[in-house]
Each structure stands twice: as C-alpha cells, then as structure tokens.
Amino acid sequence: MREINPQGTTRAYAFEMWMQAPNPMVTFFKTLDVSRLLKISRKSGLKFNMLMCYCIGRAASQVKEFYLLPVGDKLMQYDTIAVNTIVANSAGEVSSCDLPFNEDLEQFGSDYLRLTQQVAESCTDHDLSAGSMVIGTSALAQYEIDGAVGMYSGVFNNPFMIWGKYKRGLFKTTLSVSFQFHHTQMDGAHAAKFLDILQREIDRVNV
Prior knowledge:
Helix content: 25-40%
Largest sheet: 7 strands, mixed
Strand content: 25-35%
Number of strands: 10
Order of helices and strands: EHEHHEEEEHEEEEH
Distance between the termini: 32 Å
Shape: globular
Radius of gyration: 17 Å
C-alpha cells in the first residue's frame, strides 16, 4: 500500500467532509438470492461461506473505490484485495483469517481451506492488512438475523459484511446481508453498485 494525496483523487471532497466525523460509517442492508450458491455448494461439496467470500472479492474488485482506504489520517491506495473470514479455532474461541482474493475459484478455494485450517489449529490470526485492502466478513450461519450494524472503533475503517442463516423459500433461497463502509472510501452509490454486482456474481459463478 502507499499513501496518496486525497486532492488528486475523486475522494477529495469526501476526505474533507468525513475524516473527522464522529461516526463516518454507513450501513446498507440487502436481501440476496443465493439459490445458485447453495446448489453449487451441495453439488460440489464446496463450502457456502467460501463461495460467498469469493463472490464478494469478485464484486469488490470491479469497484475502484475498494482499492482506497482511510488509515489514521491518511488515504492509502492498494494494489490487491483480500477477504477476511472469522474461524472457530481449536481453543473454542474465534480467530481472524485474511484470504487473498484470486479470480481463479479453484485457487481461492484451495487458499481458503489451507489458511482457515492453519488459523483454526494455531489459534493465530492470519493478517494481510499491511499489503491488501481487506473486506471483513462475519457469518452467523446458525442464526436468523435481518442485519447488523458494525461497531466503529476509530481504528479499523475497512468495509465489513455480516450475514446470518439463509432462508429457504418455495422457489429461491435468500440471505440478508449488511454492508458497512467508511464514507471517505466510497459514497452510497458505490456501495449500492457493489451490492448489485455481488448479486450478479452470485448468479453466474461457475465451478
């Protein structure tokens, strides 16, 4: 990552407006149709959570604002994106695992299995935040929730997605997600575009 001058970017106004705001985070809620992901997961044995993380990475990689992030009082630019997942570890607690995004689903899936197993066994977080813009995720897959608003600590400004248990319907399976983002990084239109692209990527993912 490297520091850039906000005045030379499309985020100049947002940087001035939101960097010192008491709470610069915005949260969107959306219901996704995940019927295809569930079908692929059951047919191929691939983990549903891995497929979600892959589609999130694919969608984010198509929105240029995801490659920027306010860190401290600076605006940083990244060349790569990672997707974070929370892992139940061998100590009965949870650990954090950053997954480098790869367009190749097979490679991403392989990295997912290797790194989540490593984190689960070692109880040690796998952190890529020094080199990649990390999208946080938290899957509360056992619980039916409509969404969640993440806590703003003033330290981590990364975008964050939360979802619970998917809901089976007569004709489709849906998943309610929340997406929190720092207003300096992107505007509402960018976030809405990302969520639309995410649905598109879910609908066309192939194994």
